[in-house]
Amino acid sequence: MKKRLHLLMLVMFALSWQLSAEVVYSAPLQAKELGMGNLLNWKTTFEDDVQHYDVEKSADGVAFEAIGTVESNGDLSDEKAYRFFDTKLGSQKNYYRLKVVEADGTSSYSQTILVNKENPNQFAVVAYSSVLAKTTFDLTLDAVTEGQLEYALVSYKGELITEEFQYIYPGLNELQVSLEGLPEGTYKVKLKLDAEEEFLVIQKASDGQKSNVASSQKIKKN
After folding, report:
1. The pLDDT value given to residue 173
2. Closest to 96 (Cα-Cα) out of 67, 68, 41, 57
3. Distance in angstroms (rounded) separating the CA atoms of residues 123 and 128
């Protein structure tokens, strides 16, 4: 009798856990270090009334603060992939976690991950205008060395459109890329200093379009 009661309690506990779970992850939160920041990824196969995910970061793994929000794709049972790009690192170690916020305001947390910065950067993008730009795309680089920076606008297929050079110095450097006269669509801004080469993906916008989130891709670094 006691054995059956114990088994029944275990079953009830398992069912209650399944009913209370807000998210089922097919791929847990993970991060990849790129030249301009850390790219966070996670995937879910089930979401129960999840409204959004708050991405939180910490330098010590104890005190976290929200650095961005990713909206939920719904509570359907198909797999959903999410990502968030953190360009403002500021420290060697960065801890991340997700705060899962439901429609009724309740919340829960994912596991915490740690990203140790390994690749030294000669420069980093610390600010930029909306990547959904109409005439110009402005960005600010924080350089740790000086040198001749090549910055170019290329089509999404890799065709060179414009190419400029600017000598940059340690500290903040302002750049501006013109989109004047170009058709609407997706473009890449290439930034190259010595062996370090980075890309930012932007869009030439039409009236009425809203801002999007920039993405970056590290190409090569020796």
Report:
1. 94
2. 57
3. 14
Q: Which CATH number fits domain 123-220: 1.10.10, 2.60.40, 1.25.40, 1.20.120?
A: 2.60.40
**CA 214 – CA 211 distance, rounded (Å):** 9
At 13, the pLDDT band (50, 70, 90 cuts) reads: very low
Cβ pair 96, 29 in contact under 8 A: yes
pLDDT the model gives residue 161: 93
Q: Tell me the per-residue pLDDT of 154-169, one tens digit each, with 9 for 90 and over.
A: 998 889 999 999 999 9
**Is CATH 2.60.40.10 what the domain over 22-116 is classified as, yes or no?**
yes
User: Tokens in use for 124?
Assistant: 């980093």
Task: Indicate whether 97 pLDDT > 90.
Answer: yes
140 to 77, 108, 123: CA distances (angstroms)? 41, 36, 10
